[in-house]
Amino acid sequence: MSLLTTEPAAGAGPGTGRRRVLLAPVTVTPCKPLTHSHLKGLLWTDVMYRATSHLADVTYRYSHTTYDCTEQTAGFWEYLDRVQGDIDYSGLSENAIGELYVRYRAEGGPVTPDALRPYREAVEHHGWTHPAAVRILEHWTSQYAALGLHDPGLDRHQPPAFGLDQALTRLDGLGFCLDLRPDGGPVYLDATRYGMPLRQIVSADGQPNYLACALRELLPLAPEYDEVVLLFDQDLDPDYQLLQRVLSSAGPDVHRVALGRVPIDGRIRSSRHGEWRGHTVADLIDGIATEHDRAVTSLGVRLYFIATLGPGQRQSFRDDLLRGCLDRARRLLDRGPAGYGTPAEAAAAVADALAGHRGRDHLHVDPYRLTSGLLARRRRVPVSELATAVFT
Q: With a threshold of 0.85, does the pTM exceed it?
């Protein structure tokens, strides 16, 4: 199984006291363009990953492979092959593929298990990805680079360690599985003893949903870590409460970080209906990248999407505030280094600043507290050093 981790610090490892953190954000399926809401989650995860890496050994688990078996993704692929045929996707724009996804959602209808089965088997056994998704991921890789985002393996085959039956067996051993398949029924995640509702995770015809896929991925990983951090959309909070409960029973401390979406003109837009048009990450990059260098762009978008918008979803996207954050980023970076005597002293100052933004009950750094701290007028922080280490 492929895991993407930070390079261990000198002396890190068993017996050194350096603890282990698993970051597991919700994965964006490669079916449509990245939006401002997607970008917000990606930036929060990126800052948490890079900041926490200075204080602990961190794994950033973000696998498209794990979720390619869901109806949302495999069903879209089946629709493309059935309706579009064997076309060349290599020259298509992100928007053009997104329009095909909108059409699928409007007219595709439910996909039968028999139609999905060859796609699931190709993913599971051969590491296959549909050419449309490959093209989307190529676009995303260039967008990640433009915004200074760590690439957690967008183009890598990263299968979960557990097959579906293994995950259900493990779930049953933990006391969370209600399996009605012997009677022709579905499989439920059962946390009713904690006052939580039953949640179907496998349909009666054997199709797993994204929560079943998340369990396949995280159940074998969680016991290896001191802390697991789940980052996700607020709308998914009921499912992530269940996921937190299950993973906590496997040993680690598990924390949920719920993030609101980014309204456009006061309204949350629907990707499945194509309401991303004119408001994609590619559009955002086109509007600012030619005016600012990479460091200013990277810091500025983080100041806006993390410190200005915060974790909720009350504020609509405002281009003027984004540009104000880019100007603020330039001024912060123009200060230059704080003048620490040695690289070791500078690293110690960064670590001290980062440690101050961890809560008492967790190992990970809070991106909102850290990023907002850069804007505090009376607090002396090593801005240039933090920008290099975490934000650019």
A: yes
